[in-house]
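Same chain as my last thread, 159 residues:
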Amino acid sequence: MAESTTEVIAGGAVLAVALGFLIYAAQGTGFARTGGSYDLRASFQSAEGISVGTDVRLAGVKVGTVSKLDLNPQTFYADAVFSIRSGVDLPTDSAALVSSEGLLGGNFIELRPGGLPDNLAAGDEIEDTQGSVSLVGLLMKFVGKGAGDAMSGDAGATE
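reply #2:
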């Protein structure tokens, strides 16, 4: 009887620790929403590297997270919804860009505030957007241009 009581207590402790980790992970990824935020929308031609839980930053400071990302079947753009913490008011002419932390870093959504006096309200759409730039695509263009120059005899030619 004492052995089964010990097992129940140990099992309960394991479940409590697991629940604590789940709550911590939900808060860290932005899954757990607090009442102190509002949603904004934006459509990107390319949202490569962006997923639910990705950071939304303003001047390098995290001010929100991506809460939804879907393909728009009419425009073939990636429609994103992101949650911005209350108190961060963005002008209506603000821009949203998919940016990278560096050569090997992850992507995030960067907000660039505009200069108009009116602010975006909850549910509004940021219309000025720029999708992600594919590093592999840029390298292929560079390599392809170099190969084309070598084949045409222009590589290393000086006049």
